[in-house]
Write a structure and sequence with these properties.
The chain is α+β, with helices and mostly antiparallel strands. The chain is globular. The termini are far apart.
Length: 183
């Protein structure tokens, strides 16, 4: 029995030592859609010193920041506070509009689609957005599908909130993309 415990401990140590530096376990929803994806970067988003969410970007081999919309990837947000789906949707649309003008009818349609895709979130909830190049975006909350928006333009602008060179949060973008330089 002693030798079995020693063998298991040695195996666990070997597994830890052989894991790549910075390796993180993919959430189930990422693993099921993007099995080759690895963690590119992560960061905490704060406003006036208050934590809002922790962000992690999962990318497949060959991902390039300057053409992010043409790659499969997942952006995972783990919320540190409670927010209504209306607040998340409205803020998303405002940030998307800041990146590029969106006609009013399209803004209204996208806002409605986001409200359908996002639940109200509570501290500890996780929303994962998965980019489907040429198709749109799929959203999952705590690992369960909650919506899909089949519009590549929507996906480009939505994920541009974090990944566009014109983001309002360049430090967050840099942290998500840091291991992928040049950007």
């Amino acid at each position: 029995m002693y030798s079995l415990a020693r063998h298991v401990a040695a195996g666990a140590l070997l597994a830890l030592l052989s894991a790549p530096a910075g390796a993180a376990e993919q959430p189930t929803e990422v693993r099921s859609v993007l099995p080759a994806a690895t963690l590119a970067g992560s960061s905490r988003f704060t406003v006036w010193g208050f934590g809002v969410y922790d962000a992690r970007l999962w990318v497949e081999p060959g991902f390039e920041a300057n053409t992010y919309d043409s790659h499969g990837f997942a952006l995972e947000l783990s919320y540190l506070r409670d927010f209504s789906n209306a607040a998340i949707s409205d803020r998303s649309i405002d940030e998307m509009q800041r990146l590029a003008p969106i006609p009013e009818a399209k803004r209204a349609s996208w806002r409605q689609s986001l409200r359908a895709a996002f639940p109200d979130v509570r501290k500890g909830d996780r929303i994962t957005g998965i980019n489907r190049p040429g198709v749109g975006a799929v959203f999952m909350t705590n690992g369960r599908p909650t919506g899909e928006i089949r519009d590549p333009e929507f996906a480009r602008q939505f994920f541009g909130i974090w990944l566009s060179a014109r983001t309002s949060e360049p430090r967050l973008r840099a942290a998500l993309l840091a291991p992928l330089a040049p950007q």
